[in-house]
Amino acid sequence: MEGCKVKLLGWVEVKRDLGKIKFIILRDYKGKIQITIPPTSSVELAEIFNKLSREDVIAVSGVVKNTPQAPNGVEVIPSEINIINKAVSPLPLELTGKVKVELDTRLDYRILDLRTARANAIFRINNVMLITIRNFFIENDFIEVHTPKIIASATEGGTELFPVAYFDREAFLAQSPQLYKEQLTSVFEKVYEIAPVFRAEESNTTRHLSEIVMLDMEAAFQDYNDIMNFCESLLDRVFKEVIDRCQNELEVLKKNLQRPKTPYKRYSYSEVLEILSNNGVEIKWGDDIDTLALRKLGELIKEPYFIKDWPTKSKPFYISPRVDNPEVSESFDLMYGWLEIASGGTRIHKKELLINRIKEKGMRPESFDFHIKTFDWGMPPHAGCGIGLARLLMAITGLDNIREAVLFPRDRYRLTP
Ligand code: AMO
Fold this sequence. Notes:
By secondary structure, this protein is of the alpha+beta class. It is built from twelve helices and 16 strands. It folds into two domains: 5-85, CATH 2.40.50.140; 112-405, BirA Bifunctional Protein, domain 2 (2-Layer Sandwich).
């Protein structure tokens, strides 16, 4: 574009005054360019330059010049610079990435933080991940659905529910689209949803938030083995696309991402207990695999893997017990190192068994009346899973804290910005 006249709109990232020659690094959503004000420029341009500070929004009109010394080998020589909107100076957050700023402070000024190369890279990878996921579901003939987020009863257990005042009744924010996605398999057979869910997580950990975007899927006439196969293909595609399309972003994050080999290992819950026991961590059959044990597993297994066949009593009421051994369920968690990315399973599709399991969980079947009656109207066998998208992004980008993987995270203590 040597010699072309251009008008550029963007933000002042850097301003450098070398006396006679002055530079601005202008940033927009696609990248950065050097604006060079040579000694021969007008006095007005130098005056405007003096007024500029970081993150001012400006318009630059000028001519493109090929310059090997400039970043990307090109610069713009301005004829006119207009300040469209001033930013305060100094800004409340250091954006160069040269000084280490605590995550909490970064989140306080999130909209500024998102302009840093690091945060920007994370959400560009997230975007490629989402595009890939949607394409994969479309190719596999799934229908995208949206289910209500204001609901009447719990699905994943009662303690993590957020109550809301719903006119003169109590309602809750949805923990999961679970029951609706199951019902929808009796209509569309294959459905998926990408939407927020809400969990009143009391504990303050690096992998739990109270609002997350969940990728839910559910398919008729499939069981948990089919869903594990599907998850594996989906994840493999995500790894491939991110590696193919996000090398610059991965470089910013200093992440050398490799595409894990398929098929991913599938250990039963009992096998995992054995692996742990052989490595000095004892867990009683039936108990949950706690964080310490998960950390151990993460040290031992680096690739994605499944833990399947969990004790029935450790899983929600809708998960199907195995026919050959009802103590064990047709369920799985998808793990990446120590991090749980997804969980899913074959669902119960017989009404009587579902009612029994609700009672065994200490819940009242009447609370699920709206759901249970749909099982009288031709409910197909079905299976599905839920993938925590922020957890998946954490795994791909190598983040230590889930808060970095969400634009505006919500936790026990954070409700703004
Ligand atoms: P589950 O409760 O295991 O299963 O959630 C599925 C996945 O969602 C992510 N996740 C979370 N991520 C961040 N913060 C949280 N508080 C949080 N809670 C869950 C995890 C987890 O693996 N209805 C079932 C899914 C199904 O069977 O289809 C469900 O919600 O990555």
